[in-house]
Amino acid sequence: MEPVKIGLLGLGTVGGGTVNVLTRNREEIARRAGRAIAVARACARDLHKPRICPLEGIALTTDPIAVVEDPEVAIVVELIGGTGLARDLTLTAIDGGKHVVTANKALIALHGNEIFEAARSRGVMVAFEAAVAGGIPIIKAIREGLAGNRIEWIAGIINGTGNFILTEMRDKGRDFEEVLDEAQRLGYAEADPSFDVEGIDAAHKLAILAAIAFGKPLAFDMVYTEGIRQVTREDVQHAEQLGYRIKHLGIARRKEQGVELRVHPTLIPERRLIANVNGVMNALLVMADAVGPTLYYGAGAGAEPTASSVVADLVDVVRTMTTDPTHRVPHLAFQPDAISNLPMLSIDDCETAYYLRMLAEDRPGVLAEVATILGNAGISIEAVVQPEPPRGASQAKLIMLSHRVFERQMNEALAQIEALESISGKVTRIRVEQLDGD
Predict the structure, then answer these.
(1) Does 438 have pLDDT greater than 70?
(2) N or C: which end of the chain has fewer CB within 10 A?
């Protein structure tokens, strides 16, 4: 039987890794898929650039349309990134009756609803396992392995750059900007690191996870997003002293009132397994009603870890190429006519605990003023720490942990606290999650 021929859009890190995995494991892949899978054509901007993979037998071009429209290509693998050209090429491939595999989280998060509808009308598949958490097969786990469960919530470290920065700040007592510079030198962060450190990358991934977990349309614009720039070395140290670690989490939670989607720095108890995921590694904790909590850990990026997910998608597509499209696993886990526009909750309607750090006058009565404001807002305090101020200092740090409260209540209380003459500047607040099945 003739191999299934694929066309690669992009021969960078992931594209080269994909060629390497397909070449090295060709026999094993053929045994799994039922047919061999071969790269027939590939597109790259610079055909003379050294590559990390063998190129024998691959027709190279600088024109991506030539790959998409090649009649021999049955599956287009989109690895160029971005959302403009990638969207156009993906829709063109679908319109031509070709299946698509992509590692592009922004493409799926922003245009997935349109792309999946186009694929359904043409009877082709769009596979996107590599778009979330690199080599961790979290899409398949939620969409297929947990298909008998009602997913309650997902909490994940889904950006390796942010996790590397927070790990270095904790382990070595370094400041954010210093670690960010190193992350850029090591290639973990781009020259413009905004997507990573401001939480946009994680928000793309969370939008995808929420859609397949809860059977709702993709809704990237409804994800509350907060980065890690405001987290200080002192916050990391105070959290450690209180028995917590600070992680940049994406959290999707289904409640009676609707769905909350939020990305932000989070204190989690140091005893939790996910609190001990360090460096550039990713991890996701999924709470489901039947199985309970399950944890997924692994490399969230890199040539071959991401290629592992790309090739797994290729195997899935090849296995089902001859099946009735209505018998395939749905793109968003639920049957298309069962996708529901669940209400989306504002961050003001989210309920969580809080870590608060403020700079206060070092005199009697200040703590009582703050506690009175919090009490009047219905906010109870779990712990208070007041580190010894330097000798002769007129101000002292005040650290508090609150019990769970709605965001709007905390906003109102902090506005009053920041208006006190005894409090200097803004109050730092970081949300706290126990991740214990609540």
Answers:
(1) no
(2) N
Residue bearing tokens 């949300």: 431
Residues contacting 43, CB < 8 A, separation 6+: 7, 8, 9, 10, 11, 60, 61, 62, 63, 64, 66, 67, 80
Q: Is residue 437 part of a domain?
A: no
Asked about 5 being catalytic, the answer comes back as: no
Q: Record the tokens describing residue 47, joined without a space.
A: 């055909």
Same domain, 231 and 143: yes
Q: Tell me, what CATH number does 42's domain have?
A: 3.40.50.720
H helices present in 34-140, as ranges: 64-68, 85-95, 105-122, 138-140
Same domain, 174 and 85: no
What percent of the chain has pLDDT above 70?
100
In this structure, the answer to whether residues 16 and 163 fall within a common structural domain is no
Backbone angles phi, psi at 91, to 5 degrees: -65, -35
Q: If DSSP codes are grouped into helix, strand and coil, which group holds residue 9?
A: strand
18 φ, ψ (degrees, to nearest 5)? -65, -45
Q: Which conformational region is residue 133 in: left (phi greater than 0), alpha (psi within -120 to 50 degrees), or beta?
A: left
Which tokens in the block code for residue 395?
């101000």
Greatest distance between any 2 Cα atoms in the chain:
84
Q: Which of 105, 205, 216, 247 is catalytic?
A: 205
Q: Tell me: do 51 and 123 sit in the same domain.
A: yes
Q: Let me know if residue 438 belongs to a domain.
A: no
- Cβ atoms of 283 and 156 closer than 8 Å: yes
On whether both 47 and 143 belong to a single domain, the answer is no
Entry pTM? 0.95
pLDDT of 20 above 90:
yes
375 falls within a domain: yes
- Can you name the residues that pair with 15 across neighbouring β-strands? none
The tens digit of pLDDT for each residue in 27-46 reads 999 999 999 999 999 999 99
Average pLDDT over the chain, rounded to an integer: 95
Based on the structure, what is the number of domains in the chain? 3
